[in-house]
Design goal:
The complex is a heterodimer. Chain A is mostly helical. In chain A, a hairpin with a 4-residue loop joins strand 1 and strand 2. In chain A, helix 7 packs across helix 11, helix 8 crosses helix 10 and helix 8 runs antiparallel to helix 11. Chain A starts with a helix and ends in a 7-residue tail after the last helix. In chain B, 30% of the residues lie in helices and 20% in strands.
Chain lengths: 310, 555
């Protein structure tokens, strides 16, 4: 187990290192753009060169990379040209906002999709199964940008029930959370429900369930005691990996509802070539992606003794 | 007002009034020129009324209700230094607190503001501005001549990088990089400033209305040169909170401290909803804001019309976009190629497809029909035969591949580029449209060989010509350098008589058309929308927000 953990951890670090190198190369190879961005549109080439020299941009690239990754590790994410503030000052509050959104989405999506998945998987082919399958395929195939427009045209423009944007400019307001959570839940719900259904259906066909039913246990007890415990293993991984999907989903949703979170920040930074912010956001995404992957692997191993490594 | 009174204000005014009486000078031309020469706007309106019998005094200010905070959706950018403001949004953040010497009304007419009035010498080279007395900065200081001088000194320092460097070129040496002339801005007393110009310039007061010409305190630079951290101003509001990309919050200043009429609003709040135009519209629809800065695309007009209790604001402007070619970059250093590109354009169709017909076709010389000095030239026609001949002359008998850079939003810009590309195709020119996110294009708008740049409204035609087409000015995005054009422009800048000026401008227009440095598809209307609770707001051709008379109807 220890070796497994170390292996996973080493792999995680290697991935992060590789991604950070690519990230750095992609964004910092063209220093001229950076200079004109920082100094403004009316500067001469000479001014830009002086600025680049003064800020050490003309040194060899590996020296700059070493310095940069060192700063990152110490939590110094650099300076945002768009917000004119240290990146860390903007990034952390934004991450907290996105975490709040994420928690809300999971709090709604996970119970909803697990219950629907179980109901559908208990009796494969039943009317319940068919309708739940239909709904989950439908919602999963509508991308966030489409469902956001649809839901906002219904609930904001037509019915006028919900606020149209979620900037929380007057402090926390749960009503502003409804639409973003709804859009993200709709998108993630179908996938998790389908996985749960598949896993449940598989378990329901296994010999030990048949035995349990045949020996006369109450159906309720068969489901809760015997089927569920095993059926929940596969969806667990899927749910953890949904955090990754959520990271991409929040970009669309936060931008659309102008929710001040990590996703909107990343998009705004990209639209404005705010290099330091893009780098910090991308690194966060890598950490989350690799981290959840590792967590899912470890959790899966723990839950399923059959694939436990020694 | 009698002839002798008019003469006292400026020797050219009686002649102008006579022109108005005989119908040689239009009503708008008269109002504009008369106010530029120091006649106050109400008096000018009065003169028009007496001479032509069609007085059109702006409607008397309706009595508004006090109270309430106006919430407006607008992008909030870095607004630290007013001298380098380059977006109308930045100007709006500033102008609630800091004010200009001359104010451009939503009727496109300049009015005295922090300057109470001004007189020009007959040769238009010496201008004396009388500053308003009793104006106090919100830090307690009096507003005096030193404030004005400090601003001009900063603007005309090439190191500041202010676009005012081009706007007030008549106050500095003729070469790019020259400093301000020694006695260009002269203090007569605490409330009088005299400008001594190198060349005559009619546009001095109009240029003082533009957003980088908002007047900051005389110690602005010493105190850190940061407006949002140290928001000292003369205006009726105080900046209380400011966060880029999020919000800007203003509070009404003690009315006893403010020189003008008491404002109705208790405060203003700008909220940034990001770059997705749908977000701000949704905020308006659900009552999260009362007003939008702008409807980003015409597609949103029907959506607004479908909402209850909304008001749609619209005005035709001198806002435009130009597909400009950099004359120093091959292949655009070839005039025949540039003319061939122009010859492929069908302007009414460009307007229809690019801006759904909202606006007026333009003519590749950047002077708008609403400008007073606009001269009518023969219309430009699509002519593929001519285009083919020109292409052959340019050395591309079989056509060529080109690419144009443009922003992604607002959408009319890439759409127009695509229409241009379609119109070039029959001539054998393959134009790739390279759509870039906003920030990226503005990094290279001055250097791209072929790019589509949007231009804000300017009250006078010569203003943009001075900003963008004079040799060596910072915003000269085409690198156009034509001494003859510069000479004519100087002449136009010094010509007071509207008709005489129009003749020179006709020559300028022809020169620009002939040198073929831009494809200018159309002049645009601007739109915005607000809740019907908002009263006393007028859409401004330069999208400036003046909330002096705006109030909120309370239920």
């Amino acid at each position: 187990m220890v070796i497994f953990l170390l292996k996973r951890f080493g792999f995680m670090l290697l991935t992060m290192f590789a991604v950070s190198v690519i990230l750095f190369l992609v964004l910092e190879i063209n220093v001229d753009t950076l200079a004109s961005r920082v100094l403004g549109q009316f500067t001469t080439e000479e001014q830009r060169r002086l600025w680049l020299e003064e800020h050490g941009y003309l040194r060899p690239i590996w020296v700059r990379y070493g310095e940069w990754i060192g700063d990152m590790l110490r939590g110094d994410f650099g300076w945002s040209t768009r917000f004119n503030e240290p990146v860390a000052e903007i990034l952390w509050p934004r991450l907290v906002n996105t975490a709040i959104l994420g928690v809300c989405v999971f709090a709604v999506m996970v119970p909803l999709s697990l219950v629907s998945g179980i109901l559908a998987g208990m009796r494969e082919g039943s009317a319940t199964d068919r309708s739940i399958t239909f709904v989950s395929v439908l919602t999963t195939s509508v991308p966030e940008f489409a469902s956001a427009v649809l839901l906002s045209s219904v609930f904001v423009f037509a019915l006028g029930w919900l606020p149209g944007t979620s900037g929380m400019t007057d402090g926390w307001d749960w009503r502003q959370m409804v639409l973003p959570v709804m859009v993200l839940t709709l998108y993630g719900f179908g996938y998790v429900a389908r996985m749960m259904r598949a896993s449940m259906a598989e378990v329901m066909q296994s010999p030990y369930i048949r035995t349990a039913v045949l020996k006369g246990l109450p159906y309720r007890r068969v489901i809760l005691r015997h089927a569920l415990r095993n059926a929940l293993i596969a969806p667990f991984t899927v749910i953890i990996l949904q955090i990754n999907w959520l990271l991409s989903g929040v970009i669309v949703v936060e931008f659309f509802f102008s929710y001040k979170g990590y996703g909107a920040l990343l998009l705004e930074a990209s639209l404005n070539t705010d290099i330091d912010v893009i780098q910090a956001c991308a690194l966060i995404a890598v950490v989350v992606a690799v981290g959840t992957q590792t967590l899912a692997d470890i959790g899966y191993t723990y839950l399923n003794p059959r694939i436990r490594f020694t | 007002m009698y002839r002798s009174d008019l003469e006292k204000v400026h020797p050219a005014l009686p002649g102008l009034a006579e022109g108005l009486a005989r119908g040689r000078v239009g009503r708008r031309d008269f109002l504009r020129t008369a106010t530029l020469l120091g006649l106050s706007a109400p008096v000018a309106y009065g003169v028009v009324g007496r001479i032509t019998g069609t007085g059109m005094l702006p409607a008397a200010h309706a009595q508004g209700q006090r109270g309430g905070v106006l919430r407006c959706s607008m992008n909030i950018k870095d607004c630290a230094d007013p001298a380098i403001y380059d977006w109308s949004e930045k100007g709006n953040i500033g102008r609630q607190v800091i004010e200009p010497l001359v104010m451009l009304g939503s009727d496109n007419i300049a009015r005295p503001w922090l300057a109470e009035g001004w007189e020009a010498s007959e040769d238009l080279k010496t201008w004396t501005f009388r500053l308003r007395r009793g104006v106090r900065w919100n830090n307690g200081d009096d507003f005096i001549a030193d404030d004005v001088i400090a601003n001009f000194t900063r603007w005309l320092d090439p190191a500041t990088g202010s676009s005012n460097y081009g706007r007030f070129a008549s106050l500095r040496g003729p070469e790019d990089g020259d400093p301000m002339l020694d006695n260009a801005v002269e203090k007569i007393d605490d409330h009088t400033v005299r400008f001594n110009l190198r060349v005559p310039d009619l546009t001095l007061p109009e240029n003082l209305t533009d957003y980088p010409a908002l007047i900051v305190h005389r110690r602005f630079a010493e105190d850190g040169a940061n407006f949002v951290e140290n928001p000292v101003g003369t205006g009726p509001f105080l900046l209380r909170e400011f966060a880029i990309g999020e919000t800007a919050v203003y509070e009404k200043r003690d009315p006893a401290e403010y020189w003008g009429d008491e404002v109705f609003l208790d405060g203003i709040r700008y909220i940034d909803h990001g770059d997705d135009p749908a977000a701000s519209l949704a905020a308006l629809a659900s009552g999260q804001v009362d007003l939008l800065f702008r409807l980003f695309s015409i597609d949103q007009v029907p959506a607004v019309e479908g909402l209850p209790a909304m008001r749609l604001y619209q005005t035709v402007t001198a806002q435009t976009g130009v597909a400009r070619m950099k004359v120093t970059e091959p292949p655009f250093d070839n005039p025949a190629l540039r003319r061939a590109i122009q010859a492929c354009m069908d302007r009414p169709v460009l307007l229809e497809l690019g801006n759904q017909g909202y606006g007026e076709p333009a003519e590749d010389h950047h002077v708008a029909p609403i400008h007073p000095e606009y001269a009518v030239l023969p219309p430009l026609e699509q002519d593929y035969e001519r285009a083919g001949a020109l292409l052959a002359e340019a050395g591309y008998p079989d056509g060529l591949d080109l690419s144009i850079d443009c922003v992604a939003q607002p959408r009319w810009e890439p759409t127009t580029c695509q229409v241009i590309a379609e119109m070039l195709r029959p001539a054998g020119i393959n134009l790739a449209v390279n759509i870039m996110p906003g920030g990226t294009y503005w990094d290279r708008w001055l250097t791209a060989p072929f790019g589509f740049t949007s231009w804000a409204h300017r009250p006078l035609g010569v203003t943009v010509l001075n900003l963008a087409y004079r040799t060596g000015v910072p915003w000269n995005e085409t690198s156009y350098a034509n001494p003859e054009f510069d000479r004519l422009l100087d002449q136009a800048n010094g010509t007071l008589d509207v008709e005489a000026r129009r003749e020179i401008v006709a020559e300028l227009e022809r020169t620009l058309q002939n040198d073929a440095i831009i494809v200018q598809p159309f002049w645009r209307s601007v739109f915005t929308a607000g809740s019907d609770k908002v009263e006393g707001f007028q859409i401004h051709p330069a999208e400036e927000h003046h909330y002096y008379r705006t109030w909120l109807r309370q239920a």
